[in-house]
Amino acid sequence: MKVLVTGGAGYIGSHIALCLLDRGYKVVILDNLTTGIASNIPKGAAFYQADIGDAAALRGILRDEKPTSVIHCAGATVVPESMLDPVKYYQANVSTATAFLNETVLAGVQNWLFSSTAAVYGNPKTDKVAEDHSFAPLSPYGHSKLMFEQILVDVCSVHNVCHAALRYFNVAGADPQGRSGQSTPNATHLLKVAAKVAVSNAGVFEVFGTDYNTPDGSCVRDFIHVSDLAEVHVETLEHMTKHRTPLTMNCGYSKGYSVLEVLAEVQRQSHDFEVVYSTRRDGDIGSIVANSDVLTKTLNWTPKHNSLEVIVRDALLWERNILANSA
Ligand SMILES: NC(=O)c1ccc[n+]([C@@H]2O[C@H](COP(=O)([O-])OP(=O)(O)OC[C@H]3O[C@@H](n4cnc5c(N)ncnc54)[C@H](O)[C@@H]3O)[C@@H](O)[C@H]2O)c1
Ligand SMILES: O=c1ccn([C@@H]2O[C@H](COP(=O)(O)OP(=O)(O)O[C@H]3O[C@H](CO)[C@H](O)[C@H](O)[C@H]3O)[C@@H](O)[C@H]2O)c(=O)[nH]1
Q1: d(CA 119, CA 53)
Q2: Is residue 258 within 8 Å of residue 215, measured between CB atoms?
Q3: pLDDT the model gives residue 326
Q4: What is d(CA 34, CA 22) in angstroms, rounded to the nearest whole number?
Q5: pLDDT for the residue numbered 283
Q6: What is the pLDDT of residues 85-129, one digit of tens each?
Q7: What burial letters (b/e) apply to 79-101, b meaning 16+ CB within 10 Å?
């Protein structure tokens, strides 16, 4: 089976591509390298540098490569940026993505997997959030992902394409074999920033908000190791191929850690670095943890890297690689 991975030069897409290749799939990557990095692209994958909205380039790729499945990771991804520039998010994640979806279904793609997000839920009404929880996104980013989930259902139903929306919680860590990791230099994710401060021995880590209604006042998130998440995509694809049923699944471990707990683990595995405590960041949810029963039961799946210690270890390992290679 040949899989077209959009955003395959990015953080999550490159790990999905690695996992697909490890499992014997053919992989085609489409990425415009805005936040992605060419060195993330695994050996063995075909690579096209183009925008998913470039219809002429896309038609050529679909005609030449004839992928049977699409895994769509490309998009605009940063919650706080979406608060300042909503149009960018609706264009990238809704309009451009819809045109891309249309081209791929017209070209005969059979399976469509979409990188959705826990941000579709907004502030949870329950300790753990299941897939049937109400939707109230706090940011244009979350809204744009929710809109595209609906578009995906409608378009795929008409064209008889099997579809899945995977709602990632907080993705972190790096390939344990050191083949990929979070490489975008100005990435704003908690663990990326903390690992960079720890490894570079420079800068200060800023905690956004200590007055949330959580045990230590900082935000709580459900962190999933990027290599486990990559495996979930391959398992989902196999389930879709076999059963032809649409899926919507939370991707997390059903366990929350606070920002301060994550920082403490990074410092335990590195050294004490300077931390400052500032006000809340716009668009942030106080606490969100997955109920991931649908995922584990549907795929009969057991995670391999589900500990904060391992996630932090792999994030630090990757950050040290980046520093060593830049020296
Ligand atoms: N990182 C997380 O914790 C997280 C959580 C939930 C959902 N997601 C979703 O997962 C997906 C991947 O996120 P990531 O963290 O790997 O981000 P990333 O920025 O590392 O990867 C996105 C990739 O898409 C490419 N891209 C962007 N727009 C494009 C376009 N128009 N045409 C072609 N390529 C384009 C970028 O160059 C980049 O390589 C995104 O859709 C994001 O919303 C991420
Ligand atoms: O320097 C930092 C960076 C982050 N944080 C805090 O750490 C928590 C996690 O923030 P991230 O930026 O790492 O992640 P988000 O929860 O904002 O968003 C991530 O997870 C979401 C799903 O929950 C989205 O899908 C999104 O794409 C992805 O970036 C937040 O409370 C944030 O305020 C800090 O305190 N300091």
Answers
A1: 24
A2: yes
A3: 85
A4: 26
A5: 80
A6: 999 999 999 999 999 999 999 999 999 999 999 999 999 999 999
A7: bebbbeeeebbbebbbebbeebb
User: Where does residue 13 fall: left (phi above 0), alpha (psi -120 to 50 degrees), or beta otherwise?
Assistant: alpha
* Nearest protein CA to atom 28 of ligand 2, as residue: 170
Number of Cβ atoms within 10 Å of the Cβ of 289: 22
Distance CA 89, CA 127 (A): 29
The per-type count for the chain, helices as H runs and strands as E runs, is 11, 14
DSSP SS3 for 69: strand
Distance CA 254, CA 180 (A): 25
Measured by CA distance, the residue closest to atom 16 of ligand 2 is 170
Q: Looking up tokens 């793609």, which residue turns up? A: 109
Question: Candidates 4, 6, 12, 192: which one to mutate for ligand 1, based on the most atoms within 8 Å of Cβ?
Answer: 12
Say how many Å lie between the CA of residue 104 and the centre of ligand 2.
31
DSSP bridge partners of 27 = 3
pLDDT in tens, 263-300: 999 999 999 999 999 999 988 899 999 999 999 999 99
